[in-house]
User: Which sequence fits this backbone?
């Protein structure tokens, strides 16, 4: 467990219940993502998107971005620097900013 005064613990706590009653659609960026039209979901009030790995232009308003290795950060540094949603990564990602939560796998 993380200590209660840990900056990442506070950021995780800020997310708790923030999506209560909402639906999270997680979109991985494999080739099959091009076969789906997500646009009918964009104007739904209770739907949020999480992008996995690299950013997707076809889903312009996503609240969450998750990637687990530093290479995704390096390939998408400009996007990372301008992204305002919540970013979740592993502790192996060296970058960090106020909307970034680093998660460590526990055994």
Assistant:
């Amino acid at each position: 467990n993380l200590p209660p005064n840990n900056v990442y613990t506070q950021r995780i706590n800020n997310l708790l219940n923030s999506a209560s009653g909402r639906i999270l659609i997680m979109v991985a960026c494999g080739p099959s993502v091009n076969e789906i039209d997500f646009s009918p979901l964009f104007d739904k009030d209770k739907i949020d998107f999480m992008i996995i790995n690299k950013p997707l232009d076809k889903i312009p308003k996503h609240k969450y971005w998750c990637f687990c290795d530093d290479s995704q950060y390096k390939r998408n540094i400009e996007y990372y620097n301008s992204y305002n949603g919540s970013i979740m990564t592993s502790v192996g990602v060296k970058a960090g900013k106020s909307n970034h939560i680093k998660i460590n796998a526990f055994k």
About this structure: The chain has a mean pLDDT of 84.
